[in-house]
C-alpha cells in the first residue's frame, strides 16, 4: 500500500551554536510545529542535500551567519501527532565563523537571542530540550 507523501517522515536539522560566554543561540518560532517556542536554529533537508550542508545553509538563510560544524550531538524523533508532524532531526554542535546573528526570516522567526545555559527560557521545543540533555 502506497502512503501519501505528505504523511512520510521528513528530515530536519539543527545546531547548538555556543559562544565564548557559555551561551547558546535560540530562535523564537512563529510557525508550527511548536509555534511560540524557543528552538535551535535549523530547517529542512532538501532533496539530494547532505544533513551537514543543510544545517549550514539553513542557518545562513535564517540568521545570516556562517557556521562550522564541530560534531553530531544527537538525533531526535520529533513526532507530534496533534500537529501532524514527524521529523527525524540530526542536531550538531557548531560555532560561528563569520557574521553576527540577525533575524533574516521575520515571517518565520519572532526573535533571535543568546541565552546562558543556566538561564534558558521556559518554552523550549522538543528537539531543543532533547539536544540540551545531550549537551
UniProtKB/TrEMBL annotation:
Residues 8-135 form the Nudix hydrolase domain. Its cofactor is Mg(2+). PROSITE patterns: NUDIX, NUDIX_BOX. Keywords: Hydrolase. Signal peptide: none annotated. CDD domains: NUDIX_MutT_Nudt1. The keyword Oxidoreductase does not apply. InterPro entries: Nudix_hydrolase, NUDIX_hydrolase-like_dom_sf, NUDIX_hydrolase_CS, NUDIX_hydrolase_dom. Pfam families: NUDIX. Belongs to the Nudix hydrolase family. This is DNA mismatch repair protein MutT.
Amino acid at each position: 500500500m502506497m502512503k501519501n507523501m505528505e504523511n512520510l517522515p521528513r528530515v530536519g536539522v539543527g545546531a547548538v551554536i555556543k559562544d565564548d560566554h557559555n551561551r547558546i543561540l535560540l530562535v523564537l518560532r512563529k510557525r508550527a510545529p511548536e509555534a511560540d517556542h524557543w528552538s535551535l536554529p535549523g530547517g529542512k533537508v532538501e532533496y539530494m542535500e547532505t544533513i551537514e550542508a543543510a544545517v549550514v545553509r539553513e542557518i545562513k538563510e535564517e540568521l545570516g551567519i556562517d557556521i562550522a560544524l564541530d560534531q553530531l550531538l544527537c538525533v531526535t524523533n520529533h513526532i507530534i501527532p496533534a500537529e501532524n508532524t514527524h521529523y527525524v532531526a540530526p542536531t550538531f554542535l557548531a560555532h560561528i565563523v563569520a557574521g553576527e546573528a540577525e533575524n533574516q526570516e521575520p515571517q518565520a522567526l519572532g526573535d533571535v537571542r543568546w541565552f546562558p545555559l543556566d538561564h534558558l527560557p521556559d518554552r523550549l521545543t522538543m528537539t531543543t530540550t532533547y539536544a540540551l540533555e545531550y549537551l
